[in-house]
Amino acid sequence: MKLLIFSFLIGVSWGKILDYRRPGPGYDCDHCQPEQVHIAFGENTNDIVVTWSTFNATHESRVQYGEGVMDREARGHSKLFIDGGALRRRQHIHTVTLSGLKFNTRYVYHAGSVYGWSEEFSFKTPPEGEDWPVRAAIYGDMGNKNAHSLSYLQDEAQRDKFDVILHVGDFAYDMDTNDALVGDEFMRQIQPLAAVVPYMTCPGNHEEKYNFSNYAHRFTMPGKDSNLFYSFDLGPVHFVSISTEVYYFIEYGLKLITNQYEWLLKDLQKANQPENRSKRPWIVLYGHRPMYCSDSNDIDCSVEYTRTGLFGLYGLEPLLKQFGVDLVIWAHEHSYERTWPLYDNKVYNGSLEQPYVNPGAPVHIVTGSAGCQERTDPFKKHPAPWSAFRSSDYGYSRFLAPNKTHLYVEQVDVDMKGQVIDSFWIVKEQHKPYNI
Fold it and tell me: Per-residue DSSP letters for 339-391?
């Protein structure tokens, strides 16, 4: 009798975690199989947001997950997304947040509903606090055609080489193309890496169609304003994502420029409070169109709206100086370029022998050569004095912040079968506004 009572209690307790006894509705759903699964950080880095698509309504959005065995379940919601193309193609994009996960722990999960489940994936939550090395893959401008870097990124992500991935704008080429069929295929292609490593994004110019609707619906970032801008803390790094496109597509509202500027000002002020800057001294900002570049066939870097502002208003470069931003990452140009420490077209090296040791200005990186159908871009024959290294080969960047004083970036050349063609360390004894 005692054994029967014990068994009953165990069964009731287990059912609160994961109830396998739900009655099935019968399978009457032609396109309810989950696909395009990807994850991102939520409001905290131990909150993981799982996003996926189905082409019919499933009336529920569920993720089953756990440590080694999927013995827990979280529920979310779905939204109907209707592409703006002629066919008005429809899909249901599901979002479920796994909240309050253990730090530094590997979880397995699958996503779906009573009509069907994705394959099983796994991810590892980051360690707690700030005293651990952050590893990232960083790139922009990767399409579903000619995606030279994709297999390298898939391989490294599945071998646990990254804690986060930053895709700095321009996806698929384009996500709305062919009534958004290209966007669907691209999201399937990145699933092997984006379903296992948090895939953090910002919009590029190729996402503009229908007021950035494909981008805003397909990705789930921690920001409050349609994924356009947000920040998150990871180890000793404060990452800040912005939309450069609000300066270029003003038909969608000038208010977006002021909203982002005011948000960025407050975010950087908070990051520079002594208790926050001492914990996370590295500030890394990323957005799509660069403030500086030396490609030969593009006018964007001569316009420089994000740097100088639109009609001279809301320029962002002074904020980089005022709040001591350490590294600024861009894409858009289909190339790789590293600058010397740079502000207002002037070089502020730490010293002649060690330019990146206690530099006097932010360092800029352009990493937009992951691979797309538009190919790579050539450079001007004679670069400006601020340009330190350039390459038009296909590739992507690796980032490492091992501690509070050292930061490392290298460029992987996939044309040369994964060889590292450029690398540098930024070393800082103190992180503070620049004295320029």
Answer: EPSEETTEE--S-SS-TTBS-SS-EEEEE--SB-TT----B-SS--TTEEEEE
